[in-house]
Every structure is written in structure tokens, then in C-alpha cells.
Write a sequence for this structure.
């Protein structure tokens, strides 16, 4: 692996800290990762949940927080590489992208759907753009679309595998059917697709692989696939600098391998989370009362959902771990202690 070039900036370690919402990866974590030489990523998913008017004006609260969290990150790492993870599935996707560009994002990484309009929303700016793909098919669709409609290609591509945390880009049966060995073949196919468009535009498109990467051994395994870098999220949760409550971090440390399961999101997508009393109630078919709609996801029916994902994630990040939704990667059970970002970086690239 070589260091990643994002615009005119170069990393010291070829690692992107994965975006984690709600409130898990904000300015403090992103700035700290950037300071240590990686790419720090702020998640915009309900980023304004701590704003006093969030319940009444969630859209405005989120836009203010997009700006303020970047300022926080820049105060920690003025010259580092800092960007945003912006879910395509959210209602305010376009507004979040524009706010991220205005805030000075070095890069925007977008998944949870295909970010078809991302080139238009960032046109004329220095912000680099990267789609998250999970399959050869999704890579072909988004790169072909950008090529035909905008006459441009991606600045970076993130391949997110079946061991990732949060919402996954696979059906449940696909997640359960994949092994590291057979998914490696899928990664190689995606690499070939990306190389085709890189050659067409005469550029190098860095390819970063994500999902289940926890330690130096995992990083070395990814290197053999021929990718340029790794995206790591779960490992950064149990750092001092992570923006989540200490009880959220401790839930990872206390979790066993058997406590991590594939759950169904209110929007029908599979996700990976820690089995806690909240999730067990949901799995038993209980419908959990929720707050008035915060209009987070474009495809969500507040009347029919079994629980509100915004409520669940906010409860968790605030430390209400018994009644919150604790998204995590497949290897969250490996967490043994609270570390610093510096220690994590040193271990990943020992």
C-alpha cells in the first residue's frame, strides 16, 4: 500500500477512518485521525442531534452542525485530510453535500445507495468524491453513470465488504453466504472495473477496502488483494477521542462474538449490531414507541416502522446502551480496552 493522495494532500498512513453515525464520528475523532496522518471522516447522519432545536428543526440543526464539527476537526488538524460520509438514503442528501463543500471538505464519501448526483453537487469545488460499493455490479453502475452523464469518474472508491458495521450493501442471505475467501474474488472484479475507468480518464483512482479490518493482520491480508488502502471504523470506536459516550465504548469491550448479529433496520436493510435488550425486543416483534419523525431517511414510513432508527442511534451514542441501537462491525468483540488514535494507527501499520 502507498499513501493516499486526496487532492494535493498526502496521508502518512493509507487509512480512512470510516464514517459512523449518529454522533460516533464527529469533529474530535476525525480531527484526531487526520492529525495522526490518516483521513478523518465526519458522519452527517443526524449530526445535529445535540443542537437545542433538533427536535423542531432537524434539517437546520444538521446543517449548522456540519459546519461546526468541521471547525472542531480543523482546530485539531489544520492541515490534515478531513471529509464527510453522507448517506445517499437521507432526505437532505443534496443539502448536506453542499454544506460539506462549503465547510471545506477534502473528500465526500457516499453510500447507502448509489450517489448518482454527487458530481453535480460538488462541481466547481476542490472537494473529491468517492462512492461506496459492495459488488462489481454496483461499481459498474455508478462509474458508468458518472462517465456518461458527467464525463468524469470517481476520485477514490471504497469497497465495503460483508463484515462491516451498520447498514450493509447486501441482502441478509448474501451476508451469511459470503466468506473472506469468496468475497476476495468480488473485490478483484471491482478493482478491474475501477481500473477500466482510471485508464479511460488517464488517472489513478485509489481503491480502499472496508469491513472487518481490525488489526495489522487484517491490513496485511488486504494488501495482497492489490488495494491502495483500508477504511477502518469499529477499531476507532474504543478510542479516547471517539465522540460517543464512554458507555457506548464499554459496550464494545464487554461484547462477546455471540453478541453480534445481523438485524433488520426499519427501512428493510440488514445491519450489524450488538444484541442488547432493545434489539431483542425488536426481534421478538415488539413495536417500540418513538418520537415525532425527524425526517432522516427518504424511504421511511413512521406509522409502520417497528422502531425509529434515529431514536435508537441517539440513545446509544448518549450512553443509553440498554435501549439504544449499537451498530458495530463483525470484529467489535475483539475490543479489550480504550486506546488512543495514535496507538490504533501504530498497531494497524506496525
Amino acid at each position: 500500500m502507498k499513501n493516499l493522495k486526496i487532492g494535493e494532500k498526502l496521508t502518512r498512513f493509507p487509512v480512512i477512518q470510516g464514517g459512523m453515525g449518529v454522533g460516533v464520528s464527529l469533529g474530535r475523532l476525525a480531527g484526531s485521525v487526520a492529525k495522526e496522518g490518516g483521513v478523518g471522516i465526519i458522519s452527517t447522519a443526524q449530526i445535529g442531534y445535540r443542537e437545542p432545536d433538533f427536535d423542531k428543526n432537524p434539517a437546520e440543526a444538521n446543517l449548522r452542525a456540519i459546519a461546526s464539527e468541521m471547525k472542531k476537526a480543523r482546530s485539531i488538524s489544520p492541515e490534515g485530510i478531513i471529509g464527510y460520509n453522507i448517506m445517499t438514503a437521507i432526505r437532505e442528501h443534496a443539502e448536506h453535500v453542499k454544506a460539506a463543500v462549503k465547510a471545506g471538505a477534502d473528500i465526500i464519501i457516499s453510500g447507502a445507495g448509489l450517489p448518482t448526483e454527487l458530481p453535480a453537487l460538488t462541481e466547481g469545488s476542490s472537494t473529491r468524491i468517492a462512492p461506496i460499493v459492495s459488488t462489481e455490479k454496483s461499481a459498474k453502475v455508478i462509474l458508468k453513470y458518472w462517465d456518461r452523464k458527467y464525463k468524469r469518474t470517481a476520485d477514490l472508491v471504497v469497497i465495503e465488504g460483508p463484515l462491516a458495521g451498520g447498514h450493509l450493501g447486501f441482502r441478509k442471505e448474501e451476508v451469511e453466504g459470503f466468506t473472506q475467501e469468496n468475497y476476495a474474488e468480488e473485490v478483484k472484479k471491482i478493482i478491474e472495473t475501477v481500473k477500466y475507468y482510471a485508464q479511460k480518464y488517464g488517472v489513478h483512482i485509489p481503491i480502499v477496502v472496508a469491513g472487518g479490518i481490525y488489526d495489522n493482520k487484517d491490513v496485511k491480508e488486504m494488501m495482497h488483494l492489490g488495494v491502495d488502502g483500508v477504511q477502518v471504523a469499529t477499531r476507532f470506536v474504543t478510542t479516547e477521542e471517539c465522540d460517543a459516550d464512554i458507555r457506548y465504548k464499554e459496550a464494545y469491550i464487554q461484547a462477546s462474538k455471540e453478541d453480534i448479529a445481523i438485524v433488520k433496520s426499519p427501512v428493510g436493510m440488514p445491519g450489524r449490531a450488538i444484541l442488547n435488550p432493545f434489539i431483542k425486543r425488536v426481534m421478538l416483534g415488539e413495536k417500540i414507541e418513538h418520537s415525532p419523525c425527524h425526517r432522516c431517511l427518504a424511504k421511511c414510513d413512521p406509522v409502520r416502522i417497528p422502531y425509529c432508527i434515529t431514536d435508537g442511534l441517539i440513545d446509544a451514542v448518549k450512553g443509553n446502551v440498554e435501549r439504544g441501537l449499537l451498530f458495530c462491525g463483525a470484529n467489535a468483540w475483539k475490543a479489550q480496552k480504550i486506546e488512543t488514535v495514535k496507538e490504533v494507527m501504530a498497531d494497524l501499520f506496525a
Summary: The mean pLDDT is 93. The first strand starts at residue 5 and ends at 6. The radius of gyration is 19 Å. The chain is about 40% helix and 15% strand.
